[in-house]
Design brief:
474 residues; alpha+beta; Outer membrane efflux proteins (OEP); 4-stranded antiparallel sheet; 3-stranded antiparallel sheet; elongated
């Protein structure tokens, strides 16, 4: 009878923990989330925007070229004295075939009736200008800032990617933990129902009191309530994972049994601290912010400094015929090249106050950098010792699981021979399944803790999910 009950419970647990064929691994769900998660996509778009902003900084030290075109339509009112008697007059017509008389003097034009006349003409101009900064300290600082800002944006994208890795992993193991909790509650329900049936049979034959039956019934009702709560918790956790990856009906693969967690490597907190100080994205962001603040001070100080540019231009102008007595079209070509120097003398103390402002902001960025380093150091130490504590807890719970199983077997045997009462068996069952839940949760916490340790030290990557995937059921 005892062996039958143990095998029945084991079959129930193994059946509930079986992996459906449509289950997804942690890497599968992470790849889904990477293409769907709004926070990560927002960070990615921000990085792309900063790439183009960095390219704008290059324009500050590059030459500029411009082309200007003008076309002017003008009306001229020609007026002059009537020529003296005997003055030779020349006849000509305009584009409308109106007849005009003109003296050899270019300032005397009369219509054929002796009245002044008006004339329209068009003038075209084209100018090509170019400028190359030779000495502009402010522009050079802006260019260097753009490179620092791009590096800072990449660090921000790295932080967003690591955050997505942790969120997906946490949601993944939350579902597994809820699934385990539900499975253990259902297995406990089977065990309690068997104990309830046994208590009823013993009461009917007169070998047990009604108290045993009522105790078993109360424990069974409690397990039913726990099952309802566990089902709802699993439903909520699955919805959270579905929302994160953008797919309904996700089914994470459970850990393969027997579970063998990989040891923490390296098992030295200083090694993790050294990794964190080398290239943590949060520290890198703060470092780039400090570099940008220093360049902002250089840019402000450039307000006192002169600027020197190489400038050149080439212009073409075309005027109509008949201006100032010259027949035919007039075309002027003008080319120039030179140096343009500018020296600021006084700007109402604006430059001095701007320098003081940037120096204060530089001190702020320096303090932020130091705060980031300290925060990373503290987070790395906490994450490391959290993993170490979790590993010890797993070992302790594994021993507790074996002890709880032995205690349950002993209480069942004692109940059968009459030296134990029903409540002893029920308590031993409850303790065993609670230990199993705690052990499963502790294992998930260790796996998540390893990822959080890598995040705290700034080295978390998508490839770090592969060792976890290797632990999952196939």
């Amino acid at each position: 009878m005892k062996s039958f009950r143990v095998s029945l419970i084991g079959a129930a647990v193994s059946g509930l923990l079986s992996t459906p064929v449509w289950s997804q691994s942690l890497i599968d769900l992470y790849n889904m989330a990477k293409g769907y998660d709004a926070a990560f996509q927002s960070a990615k778009s921000l990085y792309e925007a900063n790439r183009y902003r960095a390219d704008q900084g290059l324009a500050q030290i590059m030459p500029t070229v411009g082309l200007g075109l003008t076309a002017t339509r003008s009306q001229v009112d020609f007026r002059g004295d009537k020529p003296p008697s005997g003055t030779a007059l020349a006849e000509f017509t305009d584009k409308n075939n109106n007849l005009f008389l003109a003296t050899p003097s270019p300032n005397t034009y009369l219509a054929n009736d002796g009245a002044p006349f008006k004339r329209w003409f068009t003038q075209n101009n084209a100018t090509l200008t170019a400028s190359q900064p030779l000495y502009r300290p402010a522009n050079l600082a802006v260019y260097r800032q753009s490179a620092k800002q791009l590096s800072q944006a990449y660090a921000q994208l790295t932080v967003a990617e690591q955050d997505l890795l942790i969120r997906v992993s946490q949601a993944y193991f939350d579902v597994l933990a809820s699934q385990d909790s539900l499975n253990f509650v259902r297995a406990q329900k089977i065990a309690v129902s068997e104990q309830l049936a046994s208590a009823k049979r013993n009461f009917e034959v007169g070998t047990a009191t009604i108290t045993d039956t009522r105790e078993a019934q109360a424990r069974y009702d409690l397990v039913i309530a726990q099952e309802i709560a566990a089902e709802n918790d699993l439903r909520v956790k699955k919805l959270a994972l579905d929302q994160l990856v953008g797919r309904a009906g996700t089914a994470p693969k459970p850990l393969a049994t027997p579970v063998a967690l990989p040891p923490l490597q390296p098992a030295d907190p200083q090694a993790w601290l050294n990794r964190a100080q080398e290239g943590h994205p949060a520290v890198l962001q703060a470092q780039r912010a400090f570099d940008i603040a220093q360049l902002e001070t250089q840019k402000a100080e450039a307000g006192h400094k002169p600027t020197l540019d190489l400038v050149g231009s080439y212009g073409v102008s075309r005027a109509p015929s008949g201006i100032n007595g010259v027949n035919g079209n007039i075309r002027n070509n003008t080319a120039s090249i030179g140096l343009q120097f500018n020296l600021p003398l006084f700007a109402g103390f604006a430059v001095q106050n701007r320098v003081k402002e940037t120096l204060a902001l530089e001190d702020k960025a320096r303090n932020d950098l130091e705060g980031a380093r300290r925060g990373v150091d503290q987070a790395t130490r906490s994450a490391y010792f959290g993993v170490v504590s979790g590993e010890s807890q797993v070992k302790a719970l594994e021993a507790a699981e074996a002890s709880s199983q032995s205690a349950l077997d002993a209480n069942r045997l004692g109940y059968q021979v009459g030296v134990r009462i029903n409540i002893d068996v029920l308590n031993a069952q409850s303790q065993l399944f609670q230990t199993k839940r705690d052990l499963a949760q502790a294992r998930y916490n260790v796996l998540i803790g390893n990822l959080r340790l890598r995040q705290a030290s700034g080295v978390l990557q998508a490839d770090d999910l592969r060792p976890i995937d290797a632990l999952l059921a196939k």
